[in-house]
């Protein structure tokens, strides 16, 4: 019995070994390297001074050194973080408001039409993200297509100035990540037993109550998965804020890229990346502690 158990354990190890090795090499390895870089001193000409350890990169997130080397509160980076969380949250809500009705409509269609609708939802993935964002620049710029149409209809008297604003970033992020909201919700709704909805109608529920009491609770796993798949990538988005927001609405991804690029402050860039990672992990932990099922519960 013991020999057979050891053999099964060895087989499992051989099966998952390559995957564990790949994850450790290509994910954990770079993370550990970045963690070490975040506690090093910045080099005189950029880069790092290997072996010179300091917590200055983390201190610089909220404070800056005055002329007399005293610490002074600096909320510039905190404002960028707050803006990123606000834009990511607003994008997630907007994707949910658009994605849930879309997924519900898809789930109620015949099977042949469902496949066509899924195909249509995934079409944006076929186009490069840069091309899609440049298309939005043409739409949102002053005297662009939207301004031209509204002006032709005499609804506006001048350019709206939508480009290079948080609104433009939100539109671009919503367009980019909307499929990540639709598909998980559709996967949950597709398995919905419509007899439960019919039973709700038989018991006197109207459409609104059947939706809120039956459909939404049963699709909650897909809603949660969609919100996570939209919110977390939005926090680290770089291309869309760079092209549609410019320098007026910088987000965390642009700030980190700037530290590794033009500023050549690698320790501070690594510290910002780990601050973002810590915030996301704490939020996920709080969610798991809040919504996990009690042992033996329903």
Automatic annotation (TrEMBL):
Keywords: Cell membrane, Membrane, Transmembrane, Transmembrane helix, Transport. The keyword Transmembrane helix applies. Belongs to the binding-protein-dependent transport system permease family. CysTW subfamily. PROSITE patterns: ABC_TM1 (PS50928). PANTHER family: INNER MEMBRANE ABC TRANSPORTER PERMEASE PROTEIN YDCU-RELATED, INNER MEMBRANE ABC TRANSPORTER PERMEASE PROTEIN YDCU-RELATED-RELATED. Pfam families: BPD_transp_1. It is a multi-pass membrane protein. This is ABC transporter permease. The lineage of its organism: Bacteria, Pseudomonadati, Pseudomonadota, Alphaproteobacteria, Geminicoccales. The chain crosses the membrane at residues 12-37, 85-108, 115-135, 163-186, 214-239, 268-289. It comes from Benzoatithermus flavus. It is found in: Cell membrane. Residues 81-289 form the ABC transmembrane type-1 domain. The keyword Signal does not apply.
């Amino acid at each position: 019995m013991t020999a057979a158990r050891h053999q099964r354990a060895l087989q499992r190890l051989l099966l998952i070994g390559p995957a564990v090795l790949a994850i450790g090499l290509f994910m954990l390895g770079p993370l550990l390297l970045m963690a070490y870089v975040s506690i090093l001193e910045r080099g005189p000409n950029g880069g790092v001074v290997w072996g010179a350890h300091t917590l200055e990169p983390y201190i610089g997130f909220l404070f800056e050194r005055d002329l007399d080397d005293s610490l002074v509160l600096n909320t510039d980076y905190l404002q960028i973080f707050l803006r990123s969380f606000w834009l990511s949250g607003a994008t997630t809500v907007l994707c949910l408001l658009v994605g849930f009705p879309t997924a519900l409509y898809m789930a109620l269609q015949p099977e042949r039409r469902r496949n066509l609708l899924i195909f249509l939802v995934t079409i944006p993935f076929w186009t490069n993200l840069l091309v899609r964002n440049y298309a939005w620049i043409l739409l949102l710029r002053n005297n662009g297509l939207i301004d031209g149409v509204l002006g032709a209809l005499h609804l506006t008297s001048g350019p709206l100035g939508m480009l290079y604003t948080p609104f433009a970033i939100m539109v671009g992020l919503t367009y980019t990540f909307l499929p990540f909201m639709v598909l998980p919700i559709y996967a949950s709704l597709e398995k919905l037993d419509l007899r439960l909805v019919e039973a709700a109608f038989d018991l006197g529920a109207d459409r609104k109550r059947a939706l809120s009491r039956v459909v939404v609770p049963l699709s909650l796993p897909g809603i949660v998965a969609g919100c996570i798949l939209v919110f977390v990538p939005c926090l680290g988005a770089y291309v869309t804020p760079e092209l549609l927001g410019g320098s007026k609405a910088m987000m965390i991804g642009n700030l980190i890229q700037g530290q590794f690029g033009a500023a050549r402050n690698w320790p501070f860039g690594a510290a910002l990346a780990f601050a973002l990672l810590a915030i996301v992990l704490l939020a996920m932990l709080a969610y798991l502690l809040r919504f996990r099922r009690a042992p033996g519960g329903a």
